[in-house]
Design brief:
It is a multi-pass membrane protein. This protein is an all-alpha fold. The chain is built from 13 helices and no strands. It has two domains: 80 residues, no CATH class; 269 residues, no CATH class. It is globular and about 65 Å long.
């Protein structure tokens, strides 16, 4: 595979000269963006079907066979809707807000691998890059709420930003613990560190993944990911009975769709990062299943995490805002600090260290 790619890049470099790096980047980026957009569109369909099944409903079944064209109809509807801009809005910032939320959601995919050597850019500090880029999204939320010149939008933006910052701290601590045990910021090294150990030698690879020794961090990261994406039951940012659509209330048509798109892309981002850091990435759960290509395992693990997002939406009632903040600051952050200390001591006891390289 790599030999084919290398020969193709050599041919492109010889044919297009100095313009080849740009062409080669577009060849890798554009197909990935198209796949992400289609995946988001049909995630909305799957979500409505899954929740409908859990609640004894049919879900979308009118547009196309078995309702499969419903996402296309939704996209067309959003494209055809009139875009209304509030008269007193700060228009430059008003239009910048959705872009600042959407662009980071796309940008992180540049360093997320789906298999061995299957990544757009293999960056040594990939994990740091993801943390840095993903944190920019909160600025878009604040800008959208403030520039709309609406008290409801501004109140929703303050809620959203406080919630996102609070749970980013817990997620950051969880990532630090993964960094400690893998000793690398590179995703390939993080996955490789989960492919060694006593259980991996016995063929039970899933027991050597980080989810087991770092179980508290796994739970904290997964639940914080739900809160970070403002998904139910942490979606008080869009509490219908209080502030309607939160920071998005003054957006219509494609402006609203960009926020909607970013939320669902971030669900995929959280599922991919969870799979890479805690679920072994593209590693098969058992050695005898290693004949199945790694990208398939990666996608299956992402699908399992996505199903968790949908499952809890259909199961739990919405939390109050004070309960959400209490969970983040008084439960998750103390648990992360304690486990950070535990893992630090664990790593320095040779007889107990299971991450010895």
């Amino acid at each position: 595979m790599m030999e084919m790619i290398n020969s193709f890049t050599q041919w492109g470099d010889a044919t297009f000269g100095g313009g080849w790096p740009v062409i080669w980047a577009l060849i890798r980026i554009v197909p990935l963006m198209v796949v992400i957009l289609l995946a988001v569109a049909y995630l909305t369909f799957v979500e409505r079907k899954v929740i409908g099944f859990m609640q004894g409903r049919l879900g979308p079944n009118r547009v196309g066979p078995a309702g499969l064209l419903q996402p296309i109809a939704d996209v067309v509807k959003l494209l055809m809707k009139e875009i209304i801009t509030p008269t007193r809005a700060d228009k430059p910032l008003y239009y910048l807000g959705p872009m600042m939320v959407l662009v980071p959601a796309f940008a992180v995919w540049a360093v997320i691998p789906f298999g061995q050597d299957l990544v757009i850019a293999n960056v040594n500090a990939a994990l740091l890059y993801v943390m840095s880029i993903a944190s920019i999204g909160v600025y878009g939320v604040i800008l959208a709420g403030w520039a709309s010149n609406s008290k409801y939008a501004f109140f929703g933006a303050m809620r959203a930003s406080a919630q996102m910052v609070s749970y980013e701290i817990a997620m950051g601590f969880a990532i630090i613990v993964v960094l400690m045990v893998s000793n690398s910021l590179n995703f390939f090294d993080i996955v490789k560190s989960q492919q060694t150990g006593r259980f991996a030698d016995m063929g039970m690879n899933f027991l050597s993944w980080n989810w087991l020794p770092l179980l508290p961090m796994f739970v904290v990261y997964l639940i914080s990911g739900v809160a970070e994406t403002n998904r139910h039951p942490f979606d008080v940012v869009e509490g219908e009975s209080e502030i309607v659509a939160g920071h998005m209330i003054e957006y219509s048509g494609m402006g609203f769709a960009l926020f909607f798109l970013a939320e669902y892309i971030n669900m995929y981002v959280i599922s991919a990062l969870t799979s890479l850091m805690f679920l072994g990435g593209w590693d098969a759960p058992f050695a005898f299943l290693s004949f199945i290509p790694g990208p398939i395992w990666m996608l299956l693990k992402m699908a399992a995490v996505i199903f968790f997002f949908l499952w809890i939406r259909a199961t739990f009632p919405r939390y109050r805002y004070d309960q959400i903040m209490r969970l983040g600051w008084k439960v998750f952050i103390p648990v992360c600090l304690v486990w950070l200390l535990v893992v630090g001591v664990w790593l320095h006891i040779p007889a107990l260290n299971i991450w010895v390289k």
